[in-house]
Amino acid sequence: MKKLIEKIIQTKNPTVVGLDPTLDYIPQYLKQKYFEEYGYTLKGAAKAYYAFNKKIINAICDIVPAVKPQCAYYEALGWQGMKTLAKTIQYARSKGMYVITDGKRNDIGSTMQAYATAHLGQISVDGVQTPAFGADALTVNGYLGTDGISPLLSVMNEDQGIFVLVKTSNPSSGELQDQKIGENSVYAVMGDMCEKWGEGSIDPYGYSQVGAVVGATYPQQLGELRRRLPHTFFLVPGYGAQGGGAKDVAGAFDENGLGGIVNSSRAILTAWKKEGSDGVDFAETARREALRMKEDIISVIAPIKG
Ligand SMILES: O=C(O)c1cc(=O)[nH]c(=O)n1[C@@H]1O[C@H](COP(=O)(O)O)[C@@H](O)[C@H]1O
């Protein structure tokens, strides 16, 4: 996770802003502009999403190291939405941000190869190599085992990474993930698999290119997994809208203030609503919320050093 860790060190900020737009999160004045131009159509909505994302990215790119667009919100608009996803990834990267595409992908090896090519690799069009979505990292499910992960490992360059679901933030995550296999919980076994998949790619900071997703809503498991998985970098969703706070995520970090990056999506994108405004200054409000989150989290972890 070298590239991500260097961005975190540069911004002194271990947080990622989730770009999970819905029409409800976009202020009326901005939506109206695109509806007037394109009608109440998927195209109009997709254009509004892109304008919204760009303004958020412009407002945070100097203080936040990464963004995490979640594919589902874009898929909801069909191909127009997927075009906005691709453009958003490109735009965020052009502003120097690290982009984690949240796709939670997994399948048999041959199909996983296609996902790996789509999100992290390059597709060969008659011998000409072209990135399709071209993200820095992808969230994946490890449930199909090693042959579902290997295609990603062979496609990734040294700046890229994956985050494997280990202990998810949702209320039902324990139904399966807390079950025991012998002495160990399922999430611990999945965590051990991440350590193994990452063995060959440990960077100078001690973390491999295979990260784990561990929810802020399970602070005890977060601490347990940090101790158990010394080379696995954590993506920690569940701060903010799902109820996780700074003290809940503290366990994700090591003695150098590294080891994790905490995501917040809704709490940042909709911060303007809490202030009861018409949303004209939604991007500045998102920046203020991002800065508040950063201060909140760095107040409970060791100083970030490289
Ligand atoms: O992989 C993820 O990012 C993820 C895993 C998980 O266990 N829980 C979880 O909330 N997420 C994602 O993190 C984001 C959380 O959004 P907010 O609850 O609005 O901050 C969403 O994009 C979720 O899909």
Automatic annotation (TrEMBL):
GO biological process: 'de novo' pyrimidine nucleobase biosynthetic process; 'de novo' UMP biosynthetic process
Alphabetized InterPro entries for the sequence: Aldolase_TIM (IPR013785), OMPdecase_AS (IPR018089), OMPdecase_type-2 (IPR011995), OMPdeCOase_dom (IPR001754), RibuloseP-bd_barrel (IPR011060)
Organism per entry: Youxingia wuxianensis
Domain Orotidine 5'-phosphate decarboxylase intervals: 14-286
GO molecular function terms attached to this record: orotidine-5'-phosphate decarboxylase activity
Protein name as it appears in the record: Orotidine 5'-phosphate decarboxylase
Involved pathway(s): Pyrimidine metabolism; UMP biosynthesis via de novo pathway; UMP from orotate: step 2/2
Top-level taxon: Bacteria
Pfam families: OMPdecase
Active site: 104
EC number of the protein: 4.1.1.23
Homology family: Belongs to the OMP decarboxylase family. Type 2 subfamily.
UniProtKB keywords: Decarboxylase, Lyase, Pyrimidine biosynthesis
Catalysed reaction equations from the record: orotidine 5'-phosphate + H(+) = UMP + CO2
Gene from which this protein is expressed: pyrF
